[in-house]
Fold:
Amino acid sequence: MKKIGILGGTFDPPHHGHLLIANEVLSALDLDEIWFMPNQEPPHKQKSKSITNEDRLEMLKLAIEGNHQFRIQTIELERNGPSFTVDTMKIIRANYKNHQFFFIIGADMIEYLPKWYKIDELVQLVQFVGVERPEYNHDTIFPIIYVDVPAMEVSSSIIRERLKKGKPVRYLLPDSVIQYIEENHLYGT
Structure:
């Protein structure tokens, strides 16, 4: 049975923090692969209006290039409307019967879990993996495996803001992603 970690997000843009989390969970839990799963319409936040799904997908491809254990799962991009994890996991489990799934969430999402759509059903479909961060409360009634990841205070929103202001983003993003952003004049560059 293959053990697959799933890291969902807007990846708007994908950055070194995403890659660090994926790599640390892959190693800590001895997983076979990490699937990066870009959302179509996350119910809890807005993605950039000016960036297309194709741009996000291309940046993600560039970000994970060269790591044979990193893959992209596009199931949520292929559906319309809000992306509810429980619906996605039902489809994935039906299509990959001989796989065990570990859904990676940040410390901010651990606090938010009670508000997830059909959370009681979802915990039967997937094992949650929480990435710990000291400024968040990790108390929850839900079964979570915790993985320590070196702190990297970076977010896509910080990067978008820096790009809009013309500030440097080197070392926050893979160079190939920076080049794609500049060549395609994304985020106000």
